[in-house]
Amino acid sequence: MHMLLSFPVDADAAIREIISETIYTNSTTMDGRRFADDFVSRRKADVTAHAKSGGASKGLAKTRVDRRCSQGCAQDYPTGMGGSRL
After folding, report:
1. pTM of the model
2. Centroid of chain to Cα 32
3. 55 occurs within a structural domain
4. Contact between residue 40 and residue 11 where contact means Cβ atoms under 8 Å apart
5. Do 77 and 65 form a contact (C-beta atoms < 8 A)?
6. Which of 16, 25, 49, 77 is 20 to 30 A distant from 71 in Cα terms?
7. In terms of Cα–Cα distance, which of 9, 15, 16 is closest to 51?
8. pLDDT tens digits for the chain (86 residues)?
9. SS3 state of residue 79
10. Residue 28 belongs to domain spanning
């Protein structure tokens, strides 16, 4: 995940190809090109929303985890590196 987030937000064709090849290498069921296109478009939307809110947004994925955890399922999520929760 860290590698995917390290790419620029405005991903060109070469970066989309890297993302799709990474998916094809690690999954036999996922469509790498579709994942790459979807990832890039959602990442752009997330960055745009983050910028519009003045930096107050935690990001789409983090918000979904927070929402689930507020419903009492924090124990379902493992601790990340360094012992902190996601």
Report:
1. 0.57
2. 15
3. yes
4. yes
5. yes
6. 49
7. 9
8. 888 888 888 889 999 999 999 999 999 999 999 999 999 999 999 988 888 887 654 555 555 555 555 555 444 444 444 444 44
9. strand
10. 2-60
